[in-house]
Amino acid sequence: MANPFVHVELSSNDLPAAKTFYGKLFGWKLEDVPMGPGETYTMIGVGEGTGGGMMKNMVPGTPSFWLAYVQVDDIEAATRKAESLGAKVMKDVTEVMDAGWLSVIVDPSGAALGLWKPKAR
After folding, report:
1. Integer Cα distance of 79 and 45 in angstroms
2. Looking at the domain covering 72-121, what would its CATH class be?
3. What top-level class would CATH report for the domain 1-69?
4. Where would you tag: which of 30, 88, 104, 111 has the fewest CB atoms within 10 A of its CB?
């Protein structure tokens, strides 16, 4: 399938509670990865299927939320195409350490979606 869903991410206002809840609910393997000074990102290992991550909510004034990411071949082109089709770019193309690049759009109906381009390994 072209452009599959590849990652699902929780932005939580109470990350320790979320980690405890989802770890116990689903038995997910949770692994903390340093993001920067005092910040961590928790990778979610699910075994088979699409994995994800958890992090502290970085959007002030919003409730905790899940965001799905779709893989694209050219993140700049996909982000600009989404914008030309009426999406709002909430986070423009941003490099994520050694992993790849992301952007976040909100479609014309108001739904948020992440776009993801992995780095070649």
Report:
1. 28
2. alpha beta
3. alpha beta
4. 111
